[in-house]
Structure formats: C-alpha cells, structure tokens
C-alpha cells in the first residue's frame, strides 16, 4: 500500500473503515436508517455551524457542484463565477450546461480574490442570481476569504454557492456567519472518509430560488428538491449508500471529538511552507495559503513526473502534480484530515529531500529537519 499524501483522497482512520463493514440494512424501508441519516446530516450542519439543513448525496464532491448549478440555474440566468483557479473557472461549465449565462470574474491565480476589488466590480454590475466561490482551489492551493466574500455578495442580493470540498475542517467554516446559501463538501478530503459522498447545506433563500423556478430542474439525480420531506415521507429519491454513510458518520464523530482540528491543519501547513521555502523551494502562491494543501513550483532541473514517480516507486508515497493550466508546473503535498499528522508529513518531506537531491536539485537544507 502507498501512503497517500495527496490533496484527496486521504487516509481513512481505522474506526471509519470498521464502521463501513457493519451489517447493511434496507435504507428505503428501515425507519432507523432515516433517523441515522437525519442525525448524520444534523451533525454535519453543527460542525460547519449552520442552522440550514444538510443533505448527503450518493456521489463524490463533483455531484454537489453540479447539483447546486442544476437546481439553481434556469435558461438565461446570469451567474457570477469567481475564477482564480481551476475549480473556480470550472463552475462556468456547470452553469452553461444548465442554460445559465456564466459571467467570469477572473483574477490572478497566485492571489486570493480581493473583496475590495470585487466590491468595485459589483458596484458596476450585480445583476446575478447566484455566485460560485471556491474556498480552497485545490490545484493551486488557493484559499479564498469566503468570510468576507459571501456577505459582500449577499449584500447585493446574490445567492452564494461555496465549494469548500477541500477546505472545510482545515479552514474555519462558520457557514451561517459567512452567509453561505449552498455549502458543498465531499467525503474524501479533510473529512477523511473514502470517496463516494457529497454533503450539501441549503439555506431558505436557496430553497426558495429552487422552488420558485419557472421551468423544471433538468435533472433527477442532481435535483436537490427530490429530497424534500424525505424524513416525513420516509422516502429517499434513490437508494442511499448505507456503508458509505456509516463511514461518514464515524469520520464526523472523529471531527467532533477534536475541537482544534482547524488549528492542527493551520500549524502543520505553516510548518510545511516554512520548511520548503527555507530550503529554497518556491511556493506557487503569493498569498492565500490553505491549511490543507501546499503547492510548490517544480525546481530546476527536475521534472514533475520524475519527482512523483520516485516518491512512489522508491518511497511508497503518493503526492500529486496538478492538472489543467497547472499541469507539470507544480507539486502538491496534501496535509488534510488523517494526513495532517506530524509523523506522516515528516516522512513525506524526508522522502522529498532524497528525491530532489537524486534529481540534481540544489537545496539549502533538509526540509524534514526544518519541519
Ligand atoms: C476534490 C474537489 C472536488 C470534488 O472532486 P471529486 O473528484 O468529486 O472528489 C470539488 N472541488 C474541489 C475544490 C476539490 O478539491
């Protein structure tokens, strides 16, 4: 087995794996399962500090992104797509797929979105049904200040859709204080459950926008209204993945037992950045660093593919390159959830030191020692 130090999927704790091996029930007919599902949803709402209802959907994080856009977008709706990273820009595809008019607000990929500049933009044009914001844009590690951005958008009457799949629990999330209408999470990042589930919270405003559409939602699986009154009616729109949800529940209980989980991420992330930069490596970002992932430029004369391959074959550790416009340029170390542990990160850095030395990179020290 490889050690997976990637920005998702992440390592899964033993009690989460054990929970997944529990006896299965028929989730459609077993009244106890409806209780279990609703309690798990409520636990998530509490952990991200919202009064809004959570839904757990069978399908990885991307399903949540698509479901939010499918459920909100009607033909011709203008949607503001905040783009300072690959996932940020990617929202335009979901918006246009469902007939919306995606308006990109593109800024420097090495810097977080500046709320003051966004405000200047909104003063000129704020006629948007909703806006999409990525909390941590994982391919570049960019963390956006959703605490400032979302209240600003709401003050212009714009609904806020936030992809915090790779940020939540490594970055502070106070969904109600931040005025997030649709918050999206996935099981396989800092939650550290296996891939397979999306978590979505829905505000009253978001729900009303979905209910007051003139045209029907052009999807079944990605229609968030199909879960309406599931508890009262004891009826799920499709068969719930029981074992995945048992695992998720155990993972959320682990998080609840650790009130300082965000601080653990922030500390480790700061130490990783300091270790890499003190040894002469260059971080991709100028600012907006995230607690869950560190992204650095491929140092000369090494190639990204060789670094990843040697880490894998010689040290049994998977770290990640990147994709889309970032492909080949950067290396990403994930330190989220169960991977955000001192020993694991130190092992990864020690391996990286050897790999970079083998590839002829001149370093100013050993990252594992400085860490
Ligand atoms: C991982 C991730 C997702 C979900 O992608 P999946 O492949 O479905 O897990 C969505 N947004 C961001 C920012 C992510 O990092």
UniProtKB/TrEMBL annotation:
GO terms for molecular function: transaminase activity. Its cofactor is pyridoxal 5'-phosphate. Keywords: Aminotransferase, Pyridoxal phosphate, Transferase. Pfam families: Aminotran_5. PROSITE patterns: AA_TRANSFER_CLASS_5 (PS00595). It comes from the Bacteria. Residues 43-279 form the Aminotransferase class V domain. Belongs to the class-V pyridoxal-phosphate-dependent aminotransferase family. This is Alanine--glyoxylate aminotransferase family protein. It comes from Ruminococcus gauvreauii.
């Amino acid at each position: 087995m490889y050690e997976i130090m990637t920005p998702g999927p992440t390592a899964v704790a033993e009690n989460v794996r054990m929970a997944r091996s529990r006896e299965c029930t028929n989730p459609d007919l077993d009244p106890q399962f409806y209780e279990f599902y609703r309690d798990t949803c409520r636990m998530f709402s509490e952990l991200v500090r919202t009064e809004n209802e959570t839904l757990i959907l069978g399908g990885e994080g991307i399903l949540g992104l698509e479901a939010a856009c499918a459920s909100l977008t009607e033909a011709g709706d203008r949607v503001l797509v905040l783009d300072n990273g690959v996932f940020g820009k990617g929202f335009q595809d979901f918006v246009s797929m469902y007939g919306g008019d995606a308006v990109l607000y593109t800024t420097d990929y090495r810097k977080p979105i500046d709320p003051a500049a966004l405000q200047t933009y909104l003063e000129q044009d704020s006629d948007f049904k909703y806006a999409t914001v990525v909390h941590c844009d994982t391919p570049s590690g960019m963390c956006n200040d959703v605490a400032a951005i979302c209240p600003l958008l709401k003050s212009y009457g714009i609904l806020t859709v936030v992809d915090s799949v790779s940020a939540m629990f490594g970055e502070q999330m106070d969904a109600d204080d931040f005025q997030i209408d649709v918050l999206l999470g996935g099981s396989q990042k800092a939650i550290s459950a296996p891939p397979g589930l999306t978590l979505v919270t829905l505000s009253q405003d978001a729900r009303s926008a979905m209910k007051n559409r003139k045209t029907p939602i052009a999807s079944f699986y990605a229609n968030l209204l199909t879960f309406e009154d599931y508890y009262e009616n004891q009826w799920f729109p499709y068969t719930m993945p029981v074992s995945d949800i048992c695992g998720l529940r155990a993972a959320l209980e682990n998080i609840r037992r650790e009130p300082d989980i965000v601080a653990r991420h922030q500390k480790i992330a700061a130490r990783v950045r300091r270790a890499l930069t003190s040894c002469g490596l260059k971080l991709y970002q100028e600012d907006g660093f995230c607690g869950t992932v560190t992204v650095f430029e491929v140092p000369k004369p090494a190639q990204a593919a060789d670094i990843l391959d040697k880490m894998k074959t010689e040290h049994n550790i998977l770290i990640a390159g990147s994709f889309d416009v970032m492909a080949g340029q950067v290396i990403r170390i994930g330190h989220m959830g169960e991977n955000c542990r001192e020993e694991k990160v130190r092992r990864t850095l020690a391996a990286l030191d050897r790999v970079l030395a083998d590839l002829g990179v001149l370093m100013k020290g050993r990252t594992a020692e400085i860490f």
